[in-house]
Specification:
Elements: H1 18-26, H2 31-35, E1 50-55, E2 61-66, H3 73-81, H4 83-86, E3 91-94, H5 101-108, E4 113-116, H6 122-135, E5 144-147
Parallel strand pairs: 3-4, 4-5
Antiparallel strand pairs: 1-2
């Protein structure tokens, strides 16, 4: 099973329809538990894991595993176009990484160290780790990357 975000966390607390509170009350829920209950159908169905390809500026193609939404193509392209000033020899932290594409591109382009992270959902972090390992052989000399 893959998840982008656990369904047990309250999302958008101020927009809960009145019917969800009354439904929760009829199920014996009280107080904050009833107030923050999401209505039926509130969460979109989970997407199945997929793969996507990204072409580096030099024509090499990266294949990425995806859990949830798509990777950050425009950010990766921008980092490649500005490698000399933004990436090479620098320490890079990618937050909200998804598949980790921008961080992986930074490793390939010669960043000193790259830490790639996202919401602490095990399938999401494992996917980032797998994407790093799949492309580690392309990393610049002395570049290191970890998923956390």
């Amino acid at each position: 099973m893959t998840r982008t975000y656990p369904k047990s966390l309250p999302q958008n607390r101020n927009r809960i329809p009145k019917s969800s509170t009354s439904d929760a009350a009829s199920e014996g829920l009280a107080g904050e538990e009833a107030l923050f209950r999401e209505p039926e159908g509130y969460f979109k169905p989970e997407k199945a894991p997929t793969t996507a390809e990204y072409a580096l500026l030099d024509g090499r193609v990266l294949q990425l595993g995806l859990v949830g939404e798509s990777p950050l193509w425009a950010t990766a392209r921008y980092l490649q176009e500005h490698t000399a000033t933004l990436v090479r020899g620098k320490d890079v932290l990618e937050l909200g990484a998804g598949a980790g594409l921008p961080g992986i591109v930074c490793g390939i382009e010669g960043a000193k160290r790259v830490v790639i992270t996202d919401y602490p959902d095990p399938p999401l972090i494992e996917n980032i780790k797998a994407n790093i390992e799949k492309h580690r052989h392309l990393f610049g000399k002395g570049s290191e990357a970890v998923a956390a």
